[in-house]
Design a protein that fits this description.
Helix content is 25%, strand content 13%. It is built from 4 helices and 4 strands.
Length: 116
């Protein structure tokens, strides 16, 4: 499989790009910047926008025809984490973080983790 034929969408999110989204767009080939802190829900909104053409929530910056646009200032909403899709533990390679992880005093676990 050749990566050259893939149509990749590059997304940045985090503290730096929230503070300076236009600087980040001007200095990198990124397609979208997510500002704010509700990243899980905003990333889901972006995927829905790209696949189903739904409206983007406030807090997105993007480039279109070499010009920078945004959807307005982000607004932290009170989303319910229960509405997010279940994490694919195999896709995220959960075993890399479950055992012998020296970053934690005890192994991190999810309340719903039923694996040994």
């Amino acid at each position: 499989m050749e990566i050259r034929n893939w149509k990749l969408v590059i997304v940045l999110m985090g503290d730096h790009v929230t503070a300076l989204p236009e600087e980040s767009l001007n200095n990198s080939p990124v397609d979208y910047i997510i500002t704010g802190g509700d990243y899980d829900f905003m990333l889901l909104n972006l995927v829905d926008h790209l696949v189903n053409k739904t409206k983007l929530e406030p807090g997105f910056y993007f480039r279109k025809n070499k010009k920078i646009f945004n959807t307005g200032k982000f607004a932290l909403k009170h989303h319910s984490l229960d509405t997010l899709p279940i994490i694919d533990r195999d896709l995220t390679k959960w075993k890399l973080y479950a055992y012998n992880n020296t970053n934690f005093k005890i192994s991190p676990r999810s309340l719903f983790d039923v694996r040994p």
